[in-house]
Amino acid sequence: MHNISYLKQNSIHSVMKTFISSLVFLSISFSILSQDLISYTKVSSLSKKELKEAWKKNGMPRIMLNISNEFDLYEIIYNTKWHDGSTIKASGLYYLPTDIKKEIPQLIYHHGTKIKKYRSTEIYRENAICAGFAADGYAVIMPDYIGLGKGEKTHLYQHAQSESDAAIDMYFAVQELNRKLDVNTNEQLYLTGYSQGGHACLATHKKLQEDYPEIKITASSPMSGAYHMSGAQADVMFKPYKDPSYLPYLLMSYNEVYKIAGDSYSDLFVAPYDSIIPTLYTGDIDLFEINTHLPEIPVEIIQPYLVNEYLHNPNFKFKLALEENNLIDWKTNTPTQFCYCTEDKRVLKENSFIAYDTMKKNGSSNISLRRAGIDVDHITCAGYAFVYTKLWFNTFRKGSKKGRKGNLFKRFALTIKKAVS
């Protein structure tokens, strides 16, 4: 009897110890999570009338894009990580639908290349894309990326780790905000983004799948991204190119992370560009203005010894960095659609083809290619790719498991618009 009593007491003590440990763990976990969100500010509330005016300004046909609800726009400051693991501040926008009784899906939108640090909240261009989703009931998370908006440090261009960190850490911060605002979300999470945002979308998708299996992705639609950094996209540096500003942006970013050369601008760039580059990449002017100060063939500003290393040394740090930031050689467990345009000269269509082919060979069963346009450039392609992505996402909201092309009438209307544009 004494032994039985002792065992019972010991068992109860063990259970209580486990229970208390669990409470401590949950408390610590919640504390960590609560530190992601630093602050939030409601920037504006968009009425249906204002949204209709925004659609008209952006050339977004109302026949194809529903305005089912109004939304509030929040600016969020949150914690994320610098490439060395230290904690830094980042920012982003959150488009939150209002007056919806049912649970709403969430979507992370990754924007295209920006060099200018300032970010507008005006409903224009990619902000309008986010508004297009939000006006039809998606809660849209748009990170500025590290170093942009109101964030700390400098932006690390086309760096998969920091792109995914910024997106995932903002997602966690938004979950805390949703609790504060009593927002009810369902289990659906969509990922998309255009240009650099296509690369960031796929980086976020891959990291969520590998490191956060508890967060289920409903569908992913990267649009016109440079997924094959060391191959399909790398060759543009040796020929006339519309955006020569991309290469120094990329080289400076990778030099920060991978220490490709010395810290001096003259270690990377030939004269006079070693003096010009620092005046251009201050975060005050956009990439189109920077383009006017650079030669048409991007590689002409790079130190010859670096070019020689790139061409002849397979272990050159810059080449290895490009390979590390490829996003083609893995298997997706999520329905994935690659959008592209055939005449895109900024981000070549081959990026989408190679990613699709490689991931298909790796066993990805539910992936597809979606040609968003034929005779359209990179900038024009964004609007078409967005509509095709939204039509595809909508089918999952209606219960599809694998996804369908979407509303036939709206696809026909988009075809007509492309024909007359």
Q: Give helix and strand order, one letter per element, not per position.
A: HEHEEEHEHEHEHHHHHEHEHH
What global shape is seen?
globular
Kindly report how far apart the N and C termini lie. Answer: 90 Å
CATH architectural category of the largest domain: 3-Layer(aba) Sandwich
| Low-confidence sequence ranges | 1-34
Helix/strand-derived category reads alpha/beta
Beta strands, count:
9
Query: What is the CATH domain class of the largest domain?
Result: Alpha Beta
CATH third-tier fold name of the largest domain: Rossmann fold
Question: What fraction, in percent, of the residue positions are helical?
Answer: 40-55%
Helical run tally: 13
Report the major sheet: 9 strands, mixed
CATH superfamily assignment of the largest domain? Alpha/Beta hydrolase fold, catalytic domain
In terms of DSSP E residues, the strand content is 15-25%
Physical arrangement of strands within the biggest beta sheet: 1-2-3-5-4-6-7-8-9
Radius of gyration: 23 Å
Estimate nothing, just give the exact number of structural domains: 2
Integer average pLDDT: 91
3D architecture notes:
This protein is of the alpha/beta class and 421 residues long. The chain has 2 domains: 35-229 and 327-420, 3-Layer(aba) Sandwich (Rossmann fold), CATH 3.40.50.1820; 235-323, Orthogonal Bundle (434 Repressor (Amino-terminal Domain)). The chain is built from 13 helices and 9 strands. The protein has helices spanning 2-34, 48-57, 126-134, 160-181, 196-211, 246-258, 273-280, 287-291, 304-312, 317-324, 350-361, 378-397, 408-420, and strands spanning 37-46, 71-81, 87-97, 104-110, 139-143, 185-194, 219-223, 336-341, 367-373. The chain has a 9-stranded mixed beta sheet, sandwiched between helices. It is globular.
